[in-house]
Amino acid sequence: MDTDTKDLFIGIDLGGTFVKIGCFNESMEMLSKISVPTDDQHPKVTLNSVVNALASLVRQAGLQLENIKAAGIGCPGVLDTKKGVIITSPNLPMYKGFAISRFVSEKIHAPCVLENDANVAGWGEYVLGAAEDVDDMVLLTLGTGIGGAVITDGKLIHSAGNSAAELGHIIIFPEGRECGCTQRGCAETYASATATAKRANEMLEEGAVSSLQNIFIERGEVSCKEVYEHAAQGDKFAYEITELTAKVIGLLCVDIFSYSNPDKIVFSGGMIAAGQTLLDRISFYFNKFIRKDINVKIEFCFANLREDSGIIGSAALARDTFCLV
Amino acid sequence: MDTDTKDLFIGIDLGGTFVKIGCFNESMEMLSKISVPTDDQHPKVTLNSVVNALASLVRQAGLQLENIKAAGIGCPGVLDTKKGVIITSPNLPMYKGFAISRFVSEKIHAPCVLENDANVAGWGEYVLGAAEDVDDMVLLTLGTGIGGAVITDGKLIHSAGNSAAELGHIIIFPEGRECGCTQRGCAETYASATATAKRANEMLEEGAVSSLQNIFIERGEVSCKEVYEHAAQGDKFAYEITELTAKVIGLLCVDIFSYSNPDKIVFSGGMIAAGQTLLDRISFYFNKFIRKDINVKIEFCFANLREDSGIIGSAALARDTFCLV
């Protein structure tokens, strides 16, 4: 690959508060990046700022807008990725029905691909991050919910209905807790960071004996981070809460193995701050529940692109969609 | 597509008792077919018969071996599809480690693709059968076990480990019945034809009140077919057995929806003899358990290639792998 080429690839990470924009060369080295605030009025206001910011980014890199070969946009919510339209996005209500790919594409005179944020992060880890050494991978994001991206034989799983890789809504306990999606017993409703804290808070409210009670009494709630900290410090109640989280993720990984049999499952999202213990306990439960009649080879690890994964992943997706090198 | 072309595509369906062979033109019209017995000694004995049979099939079609453009082989078991090697196959122990694609390819002087039987059947339904009108589909085979094939964006899901689409081993009840694979609560261990009969037999043994008791006392066991027949005739016990089967398949379909969001789930295998009632009850439980927060569009139907699905699917896979038309 010729890294002296002047081809540029743009990654745009559309968030509820900020839009991050990154400018990359063909080898996905970041040349410059910037953030602009998300305007809460019309998408065109924000996107015009994005395009203006882009022009200065490109100049910073010593190049011109004409050098842009393609752009990728990562966005949460339900998307029509084929048409490049945002159908609905909870944190970006003003983008409902907006044909964002066409708008950006016309401004920069280059093709533009739209993809949901989990898929973008997954593609980034696959091409340049924790899974760059394998062919088949799954990304699980452990945050407010549990999101996912599935890559098999070098391709992101999509589908006509745009609801593929909703891995947090795999049902673990059919008669279990009610999930925000209305199903019962989804993985997400036990094992996301939010759900882990919620389970702790419910039992602290009922008087559970725990070193977390002081925080709970003072502030009315504890965070997932605090639950993991107290578990690490030896609090039995906090440990049991985190064990159920690990058990549910372990069971989810068993189902992921049976469905698409990835070489690696990569974890990202706020909860990975819990560190190696989290991976160890997920592995423990995976090994406990997985079939023993065949040779099971799988690796668990953390994402390593971190806060720039959205712009790296969407720029890489733009390159790999339009300009396979 | 020019149907007057003399290009031939061969489908080979390798079974424990018979090998079925079909000869197709480019439009996948069957020109001739034949079966040869599976020799229980060396694979080469059987495959030499297959190649001889093939020569006469081709002559029957008024053509020559030189017209063969590609062949596909469908086979149960664990396969290395990239190398065309049968790793292990329970009903074909003598094929263990045999490089079948290379052997057949050298005999017919044409490329040869190896694929597991469920994937072959799935590809057949996708290209020429019940799912020919959609882009994304899943096949579920309901027989001795529950097998699967997943097609997204026009491609069969594979994986490095060759264990993708083992949909019968998605866990429905984490603390449930032990499955043949050693996991607990797999869909297969409740809802395959074999498991459905087994659950009935266990309870009949314990004295369950049912019109099936006469058969059970006389023969020591009832079949899945009989359970469905008695359920249809109004036997309450038999109905409850079939309801749990439908509930488990419904829950499995919820997980399938979340994972790869197919347009259609196509059912095949012996149990589909139960007919429309089976589909209706699966739909009932799917609709009961599926999320209500998004627009869910999915169709359930039966496979329609039936007994020739193995040879049609493998011939179509050969055409689509080597000679995309």
From TrEMBL, chains A, B:
Which EC number applies?
2.7.1.2
Record bears the keyword Kinase: yes
Kindly report, in one word, the top-level EC class recorded for this enzyme: transferase
What InterPro entries does the database record attribute to this sequence? Answer: ATPase_NBD, ROK
- Taxonomy, superkingdom: Bacteria
Look up the signal peptide feature and give its range. Answer: none
Xref: Gene3D superfamilies:
3.30.420.40
| Keywords per UniProt | Kinase, Transferase
Against Pfam families, the record matches this protein to:
ROK (PF00480)
Q: Which family does it belong to?
A: Belongs to the ROK (NagC/XylR) family.
List the protein's name: Glucokinase
Q: Which organism is it from?
A: Sedimentisphaera salicampi
Q: Which gene encodes it?
A: glcK_1
